[in-house]
Amino acid sequence: LPIRIxxxxxNADKMDFALQGTKGIVRHLESYFGQAFPYPxxxxxxxxxxxxxxxxxxxxLYNDNIxxxxxxxxxxxxxxxxxxxxxxxxxxxxxxLVTPAWWDDIWLNESFANWMGFRIGHEWRPDLNIQxxxxxxxxxxxxxxxxxxGRAIHQPIETNAQIDEAFxxxxxxxGGHVVAxxxxxxxxxxxxxxxxxxxxxxxxGNATSADFFGAMAEASGDPRILPAMQSxxxxxxxxxxxxxxxxxxxx
Length: 251
Hints:
single chain; 4-stranded mixed beta sheet
């Protein structure tokens, strides 16, 4: 796979970390999805004006601060690189190779990539403990989810303004944790097999979150997965679990 780091000339001496890191992350993603990188080349492009990152088929864009660093960079900068690059490159499969049928399922695109960003980033560099950052995202989402202004992860998209609203902590933080929850319930191997089943069925096409949940149910042999996932994504709020260990109403 031809991989290039593209940036402005002042950054010419800080491209190797991104190049070597990208190679490692791509290998981990290919292993997880069970297939080679889906496009004929990969360009990792940095810019001083984009406030974040954005995936495109075979060409991802990043703010300079995410992509341009060296071995002298702080642990925080390296963690950010690992998580964001893993997130964006996961979209090459989950988002570009298989695309949501409509904006109301963009949450799955971002929630899954959020989970993959922490997971694959951690596999790439366990020493950086990138996976721990998922907890911060989750607690941030819980704060929003408790408000009257909160919303369900999955909701109808009827206006352009609603598209912008879908890119928030509920989608990334809560949605990412719902994906992690179902992966934990199913077990890592069955969940991965469900992802592969979903990708194979909709390759170079469109799909819905119901298609994804259905693939999970088939892979696990448990039809309860589909309504359970819909329950967590179609209603607002963090589930409240109470315990009564002595049966006397004490908690």
